[in-house]
């Protein structure tokens, strides 16, 4: 079972009319795992030499970039789907629409139903701040 540590902090929310502080909960963020670390883990778990793993990964990375740049969406097995998203201004005429109206292009990720179900059923949320305050109050 996975475990996600969460933290709760108090923060003023400016857009609320009452302008008071609310408690917000978010996951604790840890260090980023580098591609070198991922390649090392994959190599150890699969028995494939790291050099071959790296070669295959970089070829896959290049293909993913090319497919996205050509407008394709990519299904990533049980993880989900990468796809392009475009934000554009509404236009009154066809001349104002199209490429001129585009304000942002980004890559989005939509998790698969299987991944969402795995997260919801196999991840335990642990409020670390509460546990720490409980342990300090009990000698």
Strand order in the sheet with the most strands: 2-1-6
Average pLDDT level:
85
**Radius of gyration computed on alpha carbons:** 22 Å
Poorly predicted tracts of residues: 131-139
Termini, distance in Å? 31 Å
Strand content: 25-35%
- Helix/sheet category: alpha+beta
Task: Give an overview in words.
The chain has helices at 35-46, 50-69, 113-122, 128-137; strands at 2-12, 21-27, 74-76, 80-88, 102-111, 123-127. The strands form 2 sheets. Strands 2-1-6 form a 3-stranded mixed β-sheet. It has a 3-stranded antiparallel β-sheet with strand order 3-4-5. The protein contains 4 helices and 6 strands; from the N terminus they run ββααβββαβα. β1 and β2 (21-27) form a beta hairpin. It has 139 residues and is an alpha+beta fold. α1 (35-46) packs across α2 (50-69). It has a domain at 33-72.
Looking at this protein, list some descriptive labels.
139 residues, 4 helices, flat, 6 strands, alpha+beta
Summarize the structure.
The chain is an alpha+beta fold. The chain is 37% helix and 32% strand.
SSE order and pairing:
Layout: E1 2-12, E2 21-27, H1 35-46, H2 50-69, E3 74-76, E4 80-88, E5 102-111, H3 113-122, E6 123-127, H4 128-137
Parallel strand pairs: 1-6
Antiparallel strand pairs: 1-2, 3-4, 4-5
Helix pairs in contact: 1-2
């Amino acid at each position: 079972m996975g475990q996600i540590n969460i933290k709760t902090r108090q923060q003023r929310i400016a857009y609320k009319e009452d302008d008071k502080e609310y408690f917000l909960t978010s996951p604790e963020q840890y260090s980023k795992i580098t591609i070198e670390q991922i390649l090392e883990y994959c190599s150890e778990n699969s028995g494939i030499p790291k050099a071959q793993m790296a070669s295959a990964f970089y070829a896959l990375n290049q293909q993913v970039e090319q497919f996205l740049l050509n407008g394709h969406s990519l299904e990533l097995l049980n993880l989900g789907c990468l796809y392009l998203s475009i934000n554009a201004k509404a236009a009154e005429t066809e001349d104002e629409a199209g490429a001129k109206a585009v304000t942002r292009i980004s890559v989005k990720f939509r998790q698969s139903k299987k991944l969402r179900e795995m997260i919801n059923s196999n991840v335990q949320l642990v409020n670390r701040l509460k546990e720490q305050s409980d342990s300090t109050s009990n000698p």
